[in-house]
Amino acid sequence: MKALKLFAAVCCLMMMMSFAAPLSDRFIRFVDRVEKNCDGWDEKGWEKAQLEYQELMADFREKADNMTQDEREDVYKCIGRYKGLRLKYFMTKAEYKAEEMKNTFPSIVEGFLSVFEVK
What we know:
Layout: H1 2-20, H2 23-37, H3 43-63, H4 69-114
Helix pairs in contact: 2-3, 2-4
């Protein structure tokens, strides 16, 4: 029982420390984690990341005036990196869909035109 209480106390302390970390550091850790893991993500993975990003952005809008110029610049760089990673994902997805469409388009056109053939 003591071990469980100690574990809970350590977890609480770690959470409090993570919330006490400067916002710019939280952004950096978030974007680093996204960059490291996003290659294997599907829509659900990106949805989770987007929720966390929106929370960080709300925090940033609230605290930006109290941050140093360097901290704000770090956050802006992270915003750019995150947006770039999302764009890369959607471009890759669009490229896959375009390739799929290219492969199926001739059959679709053939089927469409067959309706108008005179027999």
